[in-house]
Amino acid sequence: MDIQTYRKILRLIIIANLIFFGLSNYMLLLKIISYIIALFSPFILGGCIAFVLNIPMTFFEKKLFNHSKKPNVNRAVSILFTLLLFLLGIVVIISIIIPEIINSVNEVSSNFPDLINKLFAFFESKNINLKELLGYYMPNGFDINNFDPKIILSKISLNNTSGTLMSIFNATTTVFSSVLNFLLGFIFAMYILAGKENLGERTTKLIRKVFGEQKADKILDFANLVYKSFANFISGQGTEAIILAAMFFVTMMILGIPKALPSAAVIGVFSLVPIFGAFFGFLYSLLTIVIIEPTKAVWFIALFLVLQQVEGNLIYPRVVGKSVGLPGMWVLVAVTIGASVAGINGIIIGVPMASVIYTLVSNFIDKDKLIEKKPQENDDKAN
Hints:
Elements (H helix, E strand, L loop, with lengths): L2 H22 L1 H14 L1 H23 L7 H55 L4 H6 L13 H12 L3 H31 L1 H60 L4 H11 L6 H16 L4 H27 L4 H55 L1
Helix pairs in contact: 3-4, 3-7, 4-9, 4-10, 8-9, 8-11, 8-12, 9-10, 10-11, 11-12
Keywords: Cell membrane, Membrane, Transmembrane, Transmembrane helix, Transport
Protein name: AI-2E family transporter
GO cellular component, one term: plasma membrane
């Protein structure tokens, strides 16, 4: 037995033992993985932030400052513009969108009791005793005839005050930890963006040193494909969300539907989740509109159905599907399978992962076609 065969057998034995150990002690393995993720969470977050911010930074470098003869100045100015864009988004969210959403929630809570009473009165006008019907499904001792939404809301508020101090302490600790992790991750992201070429060069050298030239080329090609798929997906999904939010805001203002800005903002944020995300934003907006001005709810439902068809059949396949190089049919398949496998996380990563698989399969098929074509060309030349 030569040394190469011996090494292959030894490698297979080690891999088999590791797989067996992982399957036998999967709970311990999950705890170790969770501990490692928690330990490096600021740096993982920083990598994700750098990945997202690199998209506008690259745009600024190539489109606005590509004539600069000083690369370091070009990079610094591009990072500055990216940070200004990021801060502008935060300011808009904090100063405009969040106050509007808070006002909507306050209006919903104040108008909810009147809506319930109007609902009971409407059914009574149709000779339907809604209170009696609901009484069959209430627990013993509950008097449906003395039902008062204001009392129910006050009881809910009183019940929620128990353990307030502990809740405040836990919330404060969680917020402080999250803010600290975000700041550390953000600083780490700035270091990555400032020296990404040097980091990429050293990583490439390490991969070539460990795996050799031939395997390293395949690994780097695959990594480049994954990067392009995810980067194009993020930029395409963000563009699609902005377009959808703008369409809802303009059409709701034209139709006189209340709460156009918070509804459009919520729908835009939820639409960052592919295809199905806008539906959850629609439910929030519909609830708000029904409670504030019920007569406009029908118009809003019709508007959502129309714009959802436009978004699903025209905007999404062309903006997101085109940016990731994935046909519209496969975008829908990727989202559906991703949702069934891993929920929201599966929906988000399903499209770029499907794009990677689609590209690899397409390259494999094209490679086979090229191999089949070459003998035929040689025969034609010989003839």
